[in-house]
Specification:
This protein is of the alpha/beta class. The chain is built from eleven helices and 13 strands. The chain is globular, with a radius of gyration of 19 Å. Bound molecules: nicotinamide-adenine-dinucleotide and uridine-5'-diphosphate-4-deoxy-4-fluoro-alpha-D-galactose. Nicotinamide-adenine-dinucleotide (NAD) binds next to helix 1, helix 5, strand 5 and strand 7. Nicotinamide-adenine-dinucleotide binds next to helix 1, helix 5, strand 5 and strand 7.
Length: about 350
Amino acid sequence: MKDYVLVTGGTGYIGSHTVIELLNNGYDVVIVDNLCNSKALVVDRIEKIARKRPIFVELDVRDEKKLNEVFSNYNITSVIHFAGLKAVGESVEKPQLYYDNNIGSTEILLKVMRAHETKNIVFSSSATVYGNPKRVPIYEEDPVGEVTNPYAETKVKIEFMLKDLAKGDPTMNIAILRYFNPIGAHQSGLIGEDPNGIPNNIMPYITQVAIGKLPYLHVFGNDYKTKDGTGIRDYIHVVDLAKGHVATLKKLATNPGLVIYNLGTGVGTSVLELVNAFIAANGVDIPYKIEARRPGDIDTCYANCDKAYKEMGWKAIYNMVDCCKDSWNWQKHNPKGYGE
Ligand code: NAD
Ligand code: UFG
């Protein structure tokens, strides 16, 4: 029986890019996604790029019966768990939705994995678990948990759940990946980030200004303790992030138990630097207005990624010019994202 990697949330932004890297590296993939924040059309785009079609099953990860069927039908040896809701503002308004979806789906997934003796899982955590970091760059051993919104709280709670699981079952291999700020898109321009409504995150906002869908960028604050007063983040090309998952599966194949890695670039970029990089890379203007701070935002957040390099040989290779060009290439060729 063939071995499969199960990718939950595999039609989403990071998941779709990761599925391509998995297929390119010879893995067979089953995607499960309930399409609450993505489109089935993504599977066709993945096939076009990778010249191989992943299996796709539309389901909610909390649907234990259907998930069990997937594990019975395919020999799932590893799971990459992207499925989750991720809008910080929405999580403040609807905390129960976030606890139920993000934590609930992980509990069911782990239960079904246990029933089928699937031992390897990669979990999509976030730099958000570090809250307002006491130092930058941030190292994996720095404190986590002092967070200010339910979305972040779900990531912290799932991390604790996985750490407990690792302690209780030494046969499990668990990777917690803390992503910094993914931007960019596949070089083909066939897949990319397609947020619903007005984007929360900066890069899709910038590309929608560039395409003329939005009039200007709101720069949230220029009174932070940073070089130009605007917030500093660690922007990582989504294809680099995707490749990080392939490296992680290889790491898990060595039976390491629990591992935790930051996936970022190690470089901090301010909002104004990002805007100027986008303008320079693409030759399009991005009008912006400086406005009040967005509640909950922090000054500076960037990673130290030495551990991922030392232990998995992974590091980000794309630079800010690549990120800006690829984000624009995706938006330009898909002005309405994946469409209706
Ligand atoms: P995304 O919304 O594009 O992808 C998530 C996918 O999960 C979507 O396709 C959605 O339909 C699906 N999904 C959600 N709940 C589900 C459920 N209960 N059952 C089945 N499918 C479900 O988001 P993304 O940017 O690709 O993020 C992927 C993961 O990475 C998420 O867990 C997110 O919290 C985490 N993450 C993202 C970022 C970021 O900035 N994009 C940063 C850090 C961590
Ligand atoms: N920003 C603007 N204008 C916008 C959007 C954002 O000025 O329209 C600024 C923010 O103030 C911040 C920076 O751009 O300084 C980045 O903001 P994003 O919303 O793109 O990203 P965040 O760092 O706030 O958060 C993102 C994800 C989180 C994830 C985190 C990991 O939304 O889910 O990265 O670092 F946890």
